[in-house]
Give the backbone structure.
Amino acid sequence: MRFVWAVAAFVLAAVMIGAGIAQRTVFQGPTTETATISVEEDAPYLLIDGAVFNTAPGAQTLRAYGEGEIFASYGRTADMEAWLADADYNAATVADDGAITTTLISPEAPDESEAGETTEDPADETAEEAPAEEGDPEATVGRDPAGSDLWLDEFEQTDILIAPLQLPEGMSVLVATDGTAPAPDRVSVSWPIASPTPWAGPLIALGAILMAVGVFLYILAIRHVRRARGPRRKGLPLPVTEPIDLAVEQESKGVISSTPSRRSIADGKGRRAFAVIPVVAVSALLFTGCTADAWPQLATTPTPTPTATVIVPEGQQQPAVTKAQAERILTRVSTRAAEADEARDIDMADDRLSGATLEVRNTNYVLRGELDDYESPDPVLSKPLEIILPQAYDEWPRSFLAVVDDEETKTSSIMVLTQDDPWSEYRLSYTARLEASTLMPDLAAYYIGASLVAPDSPFLIMPPDEVAAAYADVINNGDESEYASLFDAEGDQLRVNIAADRERRLADFEKTGKDTGDLTFSTEAGPNEPWAIATLESGAIVAVDIHEIDTATPTEEGAAIKLPENKTVEALTGVSESLTGFTTTYKDQVFFYVPGQGSNEKIRLLGYSSDILNAKVIK
């Protein structure tokens, strides 16, 4: 009977294990759902709307097939449509019936009435036109999408592109090659299909247990048969036993060993262990293929965790960049600026620098070309990025504020970067250095952003477009300035440094030119537009530029202003002395915190940088 039960256990175990494995293999069905995007007309770009990626739940996988390099990127739909506004492209969307359709979209033709009113010379047109390829006057080179600052992320692979994505609504994907050749026409999107098999794991587990029970019953059955082989014949009477002389026995018959023989071991526990080990091994192998969806999932009630409440102002637009996007942009700006600094190439610097930052770079390149020992400009820092405050704006120009730590000097750099239009790259327009003790105002989270403050805003204690001139007046007149009470003098190291530097230069000038010349100082607002972004206390961070102007003039007829020690001014002017004198201009890039109306705070200096801008002979 034990054999019957053992066989029954084996059969039932095999059925249960087989059923569990079948659920995970032949009966499981497809694991992914795929939607093919058909492209009928050639175009250099394919824009796949976010609705296509959300026609099925779960993570998305984009696949594109072609020859050569294949490019894909994703970003906000509005940004991508703006980037493609002047190009032909195929747009893949979801129709009302749920089908994926593709439409060729061409740029809108300019209004003839507006075109007739323009007086611009076609030769001066700044629109980007594609040059013709050599040997083919009709062929044009399109705009390569790789490396645009608009993309949140991008992928580039050869012949076949596989990109795992998790796109929400409002995002789209751009697929192309080099912007000239047609975009790949074999594109698909796939999603994983959830096909849990909650009974596969229990069936395999119970089958393994029954198999172990069957093996145990089988061993018991064999043991029972061996013990119950039936009656044996009675033997002849044995003589009375006597003690055996072991020494004699060893000499005559050999040594008698009490150790069990190998056969007895094989017939006993050793054989049972050998039989059980394969069962355990098979069970372990079966369990390794059982994932979490092969077991019943008990419903659990998640415990809510408190999160900080973030209130987004009504009607506020999307932030210009994400944190990852800002980090990538800063890295590109830093790399390009370093290349331009090394080559002293202002055209190369213009790719990523603008405004006040580009102006002082140009002067530095000229001086380094004339003076061998002149120092290179401070590098543009890119990481670690400590603060990012993007402008909340959907149109252009758009910008963001960044603060990057300098681990070597234990200071930080504060920067403003601006993108003029969808096809331009972000360029660094203002940069300054923060002191270690600088207290930054409370700022909005980077994923919310903040609005720019109008230059003439009446909601601050001083409009941003008046800050530079007011601060210049404070430097010129000190406590006698009408604006002195509005600026916080405590911690204003720029005013301290300007005063000390002027005192030093005046002392040097008077050593040789006290009786024949005059050295005066003045400060005025720079020509660049102020930049201001709102803070959480209804104030604003304002960036401006200020010019410090030194004027050296002769006071006696026939006297000349000489530059025996000022190699910098000599290099910029090309002369070592002048009968009319010299003017030297230094540019200060300055960041302030300007409180809102009704605040008891004063305008506070956050950071600054000072560089020589130019030197000229007075005419």
